[in-house]
Design a protein that fits this description.
It is a single chain. By secondary structure, this protein is of the alpha/beta class. The protein is built from six helices and 13 strands. The chain has a single domain, classed as Alpha-Beta Complex (Spore Coat Polysaccharide Biosynthesis Protein SpsA, Chain A).
């Protein structure tokens, strides 16, 4: 199934990225000459997706004009809704009968086949959620944590971080997975675990590069490289 709609997560406070985020949200911090969020916007448009929504909260006055310039619609959060509530709140802008692609606005995925490969791996008959995972041994510039192990290509979350892959935050989901979730703020982790427990969690291993940007030192290392 062709993926026609996408959301970029851009509402975080970016506390660990200070002082770079003193006057702007983390997605507007520049890396390699442009705001981090531009990498996600460009990747989605190159893939043919124009129905794009981003959520905003901290320093919305800085990021929202930039998003409007790029034709990205806004899902503003007066109160921060966390990683799950923010997506659920934005579903009002999407067709809930179709799969939704989610990208992070504060990290950088590189690889021309990244989104086509992820879309190709999506199977709505067997999955409610598909995660894009990064092998830890490919992460040389930015911090890596073993979020998931793959057992015969079946993802299993490893709370002790013993897995060999880190979740990039990129995912495709069926919007129906939010049907039994609370209103307001909640973590997307509960949705991920529910999909795993029901046997409807899939994973795709990313063949490209992912820069997991958390601190100013991460930005400096990527810029230097």
């Amino acid at each position: 199934m062709k993926i026609e709609q996408a959301m970029i997560l851009a509402a975080g406070l970016g506390n660990r990225m200070r002082p770079l985020t003193n006057d702007r949200p983390k997605p507007m911090v520049e890396v390699m000459g442009k705001p981090i969020i531009d990498y996600a916007i460009e990747a989605l448009k190159d893939f043919g997706i124009t129905n794009i929504v981003a959520n905003t909260h901290y320093r919305a006055d800085v990021i929202e004009p930039h998003l409007h310039k790029h034709g990205v619609r806004i899902s503003h959060e007066d109160v921060l809704l966390d990683t799950g509530g923010g997506i659920k709140n934005a579903l009002q802008y999407f067709d809930r009968s179709k799969p939704l692609l989610i990208l992070a606005g504060d990290s950088i995925l590189l690889g021309k086949d990244t989104l086509p490969d992820l879309a190709q791996a999506w199977d709505g008959n067997t999955m409610d959620l598909l995660l894009l995972l990064q092998p830890l041994d490919t992460m040389v510039l930015t911090p890596a944590v073993g979020d998931y192990a793959l057992d015969n290509n079946i993802p299993r979350r490893t709370p002790d971080h013993s897995g060999g892959h880190m979740w990039t935050s990129a995912r495709i989901l069926n919007p129906k997975i939010f049907e039994n979730t609370p209103d307001g703020a909640f973590s997307f982790l509960s949705v991920m675990d529910a999909a795993e427990q029901s046997g409807r969690l899939g994973a795709q291993v990313h063949k490209g590069t992912w820069h997991h940007l958390t601190t100013p030192d991460d930005v400096n290392r990527v810029n230097a490289a």
